[in-house]
Structure prediction request, 338 residues.
Amino acid sequence: MSSTSGSLRPSVLVARAVFDDVVARLAAHFEVETNPDDRIFSPAELSERLRGKAGAFITGSERIDAPLLDAHPQLRAVCNMAVGYNNIDVEACRQRGVIATNTPDVLTETTADFGFALMMAAARRIAESEHFLRRGEWTKWRYDLFAGSDVHGATLGILGMGRIGRGVAQRGALGFGMKVLYHNRSRLDPALEAPLGARWVDKDTLLREADHLVIVVPYSPSSHHAVGERELSLMKPTATLTNIARGGVVDDAALARALRAGRIAAAGLDVFEGEPAVHRDLLTVPNVVLTPHIASATVATRRAMANLAADNLIAALGFGPQAGRPPTPIPAPSAPSR
Ligand code: 8YV
Prediction:
């Protein structure tokens, strides 16, 4: 489908491949240009594709910044199929009256499940031992074969206690009897802390005391390399680190060095600096589980995210039952996210 010049219906760009029925929902209101080959557009090509578009359905791979917005004064809405929105200059959108939306809530539990699974895989050395078995190296039982660290009863450290962080904490506290420590810009309401037995601590205390550190803090210039050489050096040599937030929050080169030197025990990573490229040292250290940014990837959740992004686009451009009131606009900068 491509835009029809002279049509009275607004035109929108769906920048990446997505469920056909979600595209069909958009096509009920708009002239829709899709990207059937699912290519990642260069900034120049994205700009070219946005020509004449009133709205865009985007993912984390499309960057929306001030020069792009200035080149497209007709653009009225950018709707991210992601809860994270570090790909969008939200302030530039606000200044130009462009509505920016994300997809919170619908992925919280799925992403928390995955974070917990990745943390358990790192702690119990699941990927590392599986590779060993597949290589045909399993010749005998040994008392210490892939002995890892316990998850139940251990101290869970959450960096970034938004919705997903709380979901991970809930799994740890209620399902595995873990002690929950967290660090966040601001302390949670005690009513949210109490059922989890969660305690706010400063970042260095979190790093020192966590047996399993799970990172769920949104990426921003202030969270760039929030965990680097110094922070890793504070962690226990038996600790694991799991990153389901964004690449760039962890210094991947420093992490690879720490893993190789045994300065921490293991890591689970779903996100990487410069992904889909992965730091070559991470590819060769054994004690890390690597997954290709799939924490929200269940069919049901990806469908929910796509439909919510479509609901946002339809409403933002003045159509549907919520015309003018997109369900999940990106919150003002001071509000908590994720
Ligand atoms: C998305 C994510 O799938 O929601 C997020 O912030 O990281 C993932 O769930 C990814 O960003 C693609 O848009």
Remarks:
- The pocket of 2-keto-D-gluconic acid is lined by residues 59-60, 81-84, 107, 296 (CB under 6 Å).
